[in-house]
Specification:
5-stranded mixed beta sheet, elongated, 35% helix, alpha/beta, 4 helices
Length: 151
């Protein structure tokens, strides 16, 4: 049986550590290609192209009831947006004032009309689309306007 004294074991371990550090310090670096980030063109390729079926969209507009409410101080806002929607093919069945507090212009939808709600929101440029709540009717989309919409 071979027994190594403690000082010899410590010296050997230290030598291995020093040799490893020397190897890492003197190893040749991998060549990296030079890239001039300032002159490199910035090109963004679309990752996903969304295609819509115009005929299906038009059928959804025609077959979906929509009511528009004004929750702003702008006189005639709901009537003007209703005319705009009817001109785009939506089946607008009413407009009026909304009494209560709505945080921002919103399209409300019953669960089975989610895709139509997204289409309507896109037509009007509305970002907020949420499920309908009482006392809204559950067979139609409800638009509540808090400000004027972009044309």
């Amino acid at each position: 049986m071979l027994v190594v004294s403690s000082p010899l074991a410590l010296v050997s371990a230290g030598a291995v550590l020093i040799a490893g550090a020397a190897f890492i310090a003197t190893a040749p670096e991998k060549e990296q290609p030079e890239v001039d980030l300032i002159s490199a063109p910035y090109i963004v390729e679309p990752q996903l192209e969304l295609t819509r079926n115009p005929e299906l969209d038009q059928a959804q507009r025609r077959d979906t009831y929509v009511v528009v409410f004004n929750n702003s101080g702008i006189t005639g806002l709901a009537a003007g947006v209703s005319e705009r929607l009817a001109g785009a093919g939506w089946n607008v069945v009413g407009s009026d004032n909304w009494y209560g507090t709505i945080p921002e212009t919103t399209v409300y939808y019953p669960p089975e009309l989610r895709s139509q709600a997204d289409l309507l929101a896109g037509d009007l440029g509305i970002a907020r689309v949420v499920p309908s709540v009482e006392p809204m009717q559950m067979d139609r989309l409800t638009v509540i306007l808090t400000t004027e919409l972009p044309e």
